[in-house]
Amino acid sequence: MASVWGELKRRNVVKVVVAYAIVGWLLIEVASTVFPIVQLPDWTVTFLTMLILFGFPIALILSWAYEITPEGMKRSHEVEATESISHVTGRKLDFAIIGALVLALGFVVYNYVLDQPPGASAGSVDRRSIAVLPFSNESAAEENAEFFANGIHDNLLTQLARISALKVISRTSVIEYRDTTKNMRQIGRELGVATILEGGVQRAGNSLQINVQLIDVETDEHLWAEVYDRELTAENIFAIQREMATSIAEALQATLSPQEVDQLSRVPTQNTRAWDFFLSGADYERRREYRLALQQYERAVAEDSEFALAWTAVSRRHSYDYFWGIDRTEARLAQALEAVERAFEQSPDLPQAHLAMGDYYWQGFRDFDSSLEEYTIAELGMPGDADLYGALANLYRRVGEWDESLANYERAIELDPRNINHRLELARTYSPLRDYQQAEQAVERALEIAPGDAALYGDTLRIPAFRDGDYSLFKAAIENPPIALPKDWDALAVWEGALYDRDYAAALSLLDDAEFDVYTAMPWRYVPIASLYGVTYHLAGERELAEQQFQAAREQLEAEFEATSKDPRFLNALGRVLAGLGENEEAVRMARQAIDVTSRDTYARPNYQLDAIFVFVMAGDSDAATEELDAYLGAPGSWSIEGLLPDPRLDPIRDDPRFQSLVEKYRRQ
Q1: Does some domain include residue 593?
Q2: Residue 648 and residue 546 in one domain
Q3: Higher-confidence position of 69 and 221
Q4: What are the tens digits of pLDDT across the range 580-614?
Q5: How far apart are CA 545 and CA 527, in angstroms?
Q6: Within-domain flag for 140
Q7: Which of 141, 261, 354, 411 is paired with 451 by a 20 to 30 Å CA distance?
Q8: How many other CB atoms sit within 10 Å of the CB of residue 189?
């Protein structure tokens, strides 16, 4: 036996085996990562693996039977011991093995340590984490039931998110994997999960079939699989989803609390038609067709007046329409309240009802305390809902709880890692804290996910303006767009960049080319283009032209808003116009009122403060301007003093000792 082992070593068979194993493993790992990226079919990795396995015995036989000599390959028994150079070949194999080990180690470090999703680290993946990939619609064409498969998928996500022991990736992050060619391991790494559920839905007449399988992303092992074949009734739909959620929890060894068992056992409606309307509404809402979404939700409650979940959806749509100015009437708010009260009548402890009531308080009245109370109650029944954590984060920053806001955005990102909105809002939370480095990192990570998103790109360029007053990147983007930019992209920022350059001709040219009549791209802005013309002419010294534009803007604003309106967008916009027309006392009153209206909102207030400062300056009230600028710079707000210094709108107070004192007080050290 010893002689055989010695001969194996002399003929370098052992070293060939080691080298072959390392190189073969490395090839398979690289192929598993690269082939899906270049969209090669899954079978190519399997084919390569089989080739490597079949090649192993061949390499073993060749290394035993043949030996490399200076004259080429010879059979081992034909080579005399004095002519053998196996020791030289062995040294070369040693170097080859070392090189292969270095490459393998480098691949492991990159693939499993460095190439982790943001916020994850090697070995940090929760074994109870799961991503539910979009279910395939296997229904016949005439069924046209794509939204039904989407609804089953969404509702299962909602059920799983109620189980506090599970980490469930939200819909926004998994939807991009519909029809993906990526393998399970790659998807798992990108989403930071240990398991993936995939399946299909088939709806035909009065029958329903759902097949699902739970897969370990590292081993590709099926942890659990099931086929549900039932009659298509509302009771069966929800029973299947309850059984799936319970079986998944058991497979992942997650214990359900009595409250969670109770939540999972509830049936939202017994009416399949009402459920179809609800799913259709959710489908329209995902596509941002909000009017049609509300219409379908209302059809759902008309079909089943006891459908509490649908009532919450109706209420949230009404609150949203009121807040965003689609219909800012008392009647719209009353509809939002009536709908959520109907939901509470049917299901007093429904988490989504508390979420809807929170929306009502916040979007209808900016009552942050009451809204936070409702959202916190909702969290108890929706512990894995990323959007809820995003809503909590938004409210916390509005009441000045900035650390809580950041923590909740991070939690939302953990549950929804591919959602660019949570990352964008995280950046927009760091900016008012003037932590520009963290803001840049957050928006850059969002751009890695959506590199062609124009809104994200604009936020990236806005940070140097906040920090240093540098608008050069905006100018470069307009002259040579690196991505497709829509018409009037970040029009106000581009216009402000021209003002910072004191190139008023360019600013006027930008306005001439604009296709908007009123700028409303930011939620705190309602700026008639005539007002922008007025400011530009005012700075350029063309006072008569400025007054003509300000007068046109005034007429437009007064036609749009009631004189008694407390909308801070209107107050600041009209204040700017009145200052341009020389009605300084009224202009200052309007601007102060805009600040007062938003005094409790520590996130939105700085935006109105800054607009008010420009009104005070234009109205000649340097006392109010310097006092408010001190308050702005001494609290959270996106602009630094360095960012504001180049602004020509501050020229009238630039030589004021109080302004110069503020520059020294707040300048970065």
Answers
A1: yes
A2: yes
A3: 221
A4: 999 999 999 999 999 999 999 999 999 999 999 99
A5: 18
A6: yes
A7: 411
A8: 20
Q: pTM above the 0.70 mark?
A: yes
Q: Provide the CATH number for the domain around residue 233.
A: 3.40.50.10610
Residue 134, domain member (yes or no)? yes
Residues 507 and 562 placed together within one structural domain of the fold: yes
- Comparing 220 with 291, the larger pLDDT belongs to 291
Are 214 and 188 in contact, with CB atoms under 8 Å apart? no
* Angstrom distance (rounded) from CA 164 to CA 545: 63
Higher pLDDT: 149 or 660? It is 660
On whether both 507 and 655 belong to a single domain, the answer is yes
Residue 121, pLDDT score: 45
Quick check: helix, strand or coil at residue 565?
coil
Q: Which tops the pLDDT comparison, 69 or 246? A: 246
Asked if residue 170 has pLDDT above 80, the reply is yes
Domain that holds residue 170: 129-264
Q: What is the pLDDT of residue 119?
A: 44
Q: Are 113 and 39 in contact (CB under 8 A)?
A: no
The tokens for 397 are 């920053």
β-strand 207-216 against 222-231: which pairing, if any? antiparallel
* Least confident span in 231-245, 323-337, 560-574: 560-574
Q: Can you tell me whether residue 229 is helix, strand or coil?
A: strand
Please indicate, yes or no, whether residues 295 and 255 belong to a single structural domain of this protein: no
Indicate whether 472 belongs to any domain: no
**For the chain, first and last CA: distance in Å?**
77
* For residues 218-240, average pLDDT: 90
Residues 255 and 348 placed together within one structural domain of the fold? no
Last residue of a domain, one of 220, 237, 264: 264
Q: Which helix (H) or strand (E) holds 197?
A: strand 195-204
On whether both 375 and 345 belong to a single domain, the answer is yes
- Whether 158 and 200 map to the same domain: the answer is yes
DSSP 579-642: HHTT-HHHHHHHHHHHHHHTTT-TTTHHHHHHHHHHHHHHTT-HHHHHHHHHHHHTSS-S--HH
